[in-house]
Amino acid sequence: MGERDEPGTIGRRVQQLRVERGLTQKQLAEPVYTPAYISTLEAGRVRPSDEALRHLADRLGVAFDELATGRPARLVTELHLRLTGAQRTLAVGEAEAAVEQYTGLLAEAEAHGLPEEQAAALLGLGECALETGELVEGRQYFERAEARLAEAPLPARVPALRGRAVAHYLAGELRYAVYLLESTIDELNRGGLHDPDALLLLYASAIGPYMDMGAHARAAQAAEVALALAPQSGDPALVARMHRSVARTLLAEGRLAEADASLAKAAELYRGLQLRTELANCHWMRGYVYAQNGRLESAERELREALEMLSAKRASLYSSQVTVELADVLHRRGSSQEAADLLRDVLGGLSPERGAVHAAAAHRLLGIIAEDARRTEQAEEHYVRAMSLLERAGAAGDLADLCRLLGDLLRRTGRVEAALDAYRTGLGHRTAPGTTTLGPAPAQPPL
């Protein structure tokens, strides 16, 4: 509960309730207080003690908190129950319905001056925005949630900080996303605030940006810490999210069976929690693992399952990302025309500010398909567009590979100097992965 209202507000509330109940000041005051005291209190000229408010609440037939703050006695509990319901609605992928629920909850929490409940509703709206790909709106919701919790301990602010970081990551701003996550991890660990759920959320969220930046060693380190923290977490959804993120690191290290096992654990947890969108993401990552292992038929099956689940719930940005992965598998299976059609459709929903890394992947694959068809100019155009997107995002690993593709194309068409420039660009981004764009690793928690 927050602080009580000002004396004048409490006085007017006491007077209103007394009149509604047909009591005189003398009847309300007896047997402990005097009518003069009640008159002074109703005029707002005295700050009533807790003892006086309890006496008055008992005589007026209301709860102490309702008299002190104006909030109905069950309001906070009911808001928490409804917040849980909204979280469940979002968890099963019904983002639009969840937005409606969270919006109503936010209005009530604001009307009654409940900052923690306001922050919870804003966090929910932010997660809904991430689900539907509205990244700017999502970031603004997370910023507002963080502002509501300005006086709260850092672990309580971590979900909002992590939400901001994910919004920046999905927008292609990898370095800033990593900065937000690492600086928060550092502050928690250096301050001795070793909250397992908060740290697990941050470390698991950092793996994706690390991988896209080519900082594989830093990603592996984050994965190890996340795995060590998992047994301490009481949040199965958080543990499931961690398993899904860790799988990317295992994959980069060539530990394919372990990656698949980690994703299977995540899928089991999500299935039990009925988290449809996260379960779809597990199918997505399993499809990615199968594709890297050459099991293209299994990869296609998993990715189509993910796409069907995400599209049914209108998770537009995630759907676009899965479509790019599916197109790559289709191309490798010989269905290049179907792959190209999927990519052209999906590019309309991606941009430098919204899914930059996957927009670049779409252009890269379209370039490969064009090159296979001997449409050299078209292939070069797609490669250059992809380079621009990846340079902006700081995705070093993908950028180095793309520079190789462009360099090979330029060399085959006789432009040797331009090819050398492309190769040099790629080599520059492969120098000491992670060290050219990241500072020292954050302090680690005691494990």
UniProtKB/TrEMBL annotation:
<protein>
    <submittedName>
        <fullName>Tetratricopeptide repeat protein</fullName>
    </submittedName>
</protein>
<feature type="region of interest" description="Disordered">
    <location>
        <begin position="427"/>
        <end position="447"/>
    </location>
</feature>
<feature type="compositionally biased region" description="Low complexity">
    <location>
        <begin position="431"/>
        <end position="441"/>
    </location>
</feature>
<dbReference type="Pfam" id="PF13432">
    <property type="entry name" value="TPR_16"/>
</dbReference>
<dbReference type="InterPro" id="IPR001387">
    <property type="entry name" value="Cro/C1-type_HTH"/>
</dbReference>
<dbReference type="Pfam" id="PF01381">
    <property type="entry name" value="HTH_3"/>
</dbReference>
<dbReference type="GO" id="GO:0005829">
    <property type="term" value="C:cytosol"/>
</dbReference>
<dbReference type="InterPro" id="IPR011990">
    <property type="entry name" value="TPR-like_helical_dom_sf"/>
</dbReference>
<dbReference type="GO" id="GO:0003700">
    <property type="term" value="F:DNA-binding transcription factor activity"/>
</dbReference>
<keyword id="KW-0238">DNA-binding</keyword>
<feature type="domain" description="HTH cro/C1-type">
    <location>
        <begin position="14"/>
        <end position="67"/>
    </location>
</feature>
<dbReference type="GO" id="GO:0003677">
    <property type="term" value="F:DNA binding"/>
</dbReference>
<dbReference type="InterPro" id="IPR019734">
    <property type="entry name" value="TPR_rpt"/>
</dbReference>
<dbReference type="InterPro" id="IPR010982">
    <property type="entry name" value="Lambda_DNA-bd_dom_sf"/>
</dbReference>
<dbReference type="InterPro" id="IPR050807">
    <property type="entry name" value="TransReg_Diox_bact_type"/>
</dbReference>
